[in-house]
Write a structure and sequence with these properties.
The protein has five helices and 18 strands. The chain is mainly beta. The chain binds zinc ion. Zinc ion binds at residues 60, 69, 199, 201, 212.
C-alpha cells in the first residue's frame, strides 16, 4: 500500500500497478487512475483489462486514447465507440480511467412501470441508498423509453485536456430500449479523485448500443445497489492522488465533462 487516507467517511487506499493484488473482498470499489488526471489529458494508463477484471465485474470508464466509453457487466468488458456502437474489449487493451467492483448488491427494489424522468430516478436511488453509505455501485435493469447518451472520439498525442475533447463528443438518443444502466454514486468531497454524484453508463440488452448517460426516461426497473465506503486506487506513473482541497476547481470541470 502506497498511501492510505480517510476523506471524511470514504476510506481511500492508493497503490502502484506492481503492488496490486487480486481483489477478493466484495463491497470494495477499485479504480484505475483519477478523474483529475483524466481531465488533464492523461489518456494512457498502465492497467490492462485482464488486470482490471481481477478487481471487479461491474463498472465503467474509458480506454487508452480515450477510445470511447467503457461498460463492464457480469465480468465482460465492452466499448461504446463514438457512434454508440458496442464492441468487445480485448483483455490486453489498457485503461486510463475505470471504476469497477465485485458487485454484490445488498439492496434490491423494483420500480413500477410508470414513466419517470432521470431526475426522479436519481431521487428514487437517493432514497434507497443508506444514509451512512458514502458511496455505492448501482445496477438498473429494465426498459427505458429514452436514453440520451454520448461517446467520445479516439485521441492521438499530444493530448488536450478532457474539457476541450468533450467538445467533439457525439450525443445520441436510444428510444424504447431494454438494457442495463450501471455506475456509481460518489460524495462531492471525493471529486478530484472521482466523479462526485452519479456517474452512469448504459448498454442495451442486445449488446448493440451504449454510452455515457446524460439523460433518461425509465419504465419498470429492477434496482440493485451495493453500498461501499472503501475505494482502492491504482496510480499510473506520474499520477498522484489529487489534493481534495482542489475539489472546487475540479468540480466545474467535472460538471462540464460529465453532465454534457
Ligand atoms: Zn462516463
Amino acid at each position: 500500500m502506497l498511501d492510505e487516507r480517510w476523506i471524511r467517511s470514504l476510506h481511500v487506499e492508493s497503490m502502484r500497478r506492481a503492488d496490486l493484488h487480486r481483489e477478493r473482498e466484495p463491497h470494495v470499489l477499485f479504480q484505475a487512475s483519477t478523474i483529475g488526471a483524466l481531465l488533464e489529458g492523461a489518456f494512457e494508463g498502465d492497467l490492462t483489462f485482464a488486470e482490471l477484471g481481477q478487481h471487479g465485474d461491474l463498472g465503467l470508464g474509458t480506454l487508452n486514447h480515450l477510445d470511447g466509453e467503457m461498460v463492464a457487466l457480469d465480468g465482460e468488458f465492452f466499448r461504446a465507440d463514438v457512434e454508440g456502437r458496442i464492441h468487445p474489449v480485448d483483455p490486453g487493451e489498457r485503461t486510463p480511467f475505470a471504476v469497477v467492483t465485485r458487485f454484490q448488491a445488498t439492496i434490491g427494489e423494483r420500480l413500477p412501470a410508470s414513466e419517470r424522468s432521470h431526475e426522479d430516478l436519481l431521487v428514487c436511488l437517493d432514497e434507497l441508498v443508506p444514509v451512512a453509505a458514502s458511496s455505492c455501485a448501482i445496477r438498473l435493469d429494465g426498459c427505458f423509453p429514452l436514453v440520451r447518451a454520448r461517446s467520445v472520439p479516439r485521441q492521438e498525442p499530444p493530448y488536450r485536456p478532457l474539457t476541450e475533447v468533450v467538445g467533439e463528443q457525439h450525443v445520441f438518443e436510444l428510444t424504447d430500449v431494454e438494457g442495463t444502466m450501471l455506475g456509481f454514486r460518489f460524495p462531492s468531497y471525493a471529486e478530484g479523485i472521482e466523479v462526485g454524484g452519479y456517474h452512469l453508463h448504459f448498454i442495451s440488452a442486445d449488446r448493440s448500443r451504449g454510452g455515457h448517460v446524460l439523460d433518461s426516461r425509465s419504465g419498470e426497473l429492477r434496482v440493485r445497489i451495493d453500498p461501499s465506503d472503501d475505494l482502492h486506487v491504482e496510480l499510473p506513473p506520474a499520477v498522484e492522488l489529487g489534493d481534495p482541497d482542489l475539489a472546487a476547481e475540479t468540480h466545474a470541470a467535472v460538471e462540464a465533462v460529465e453532465r454534457g
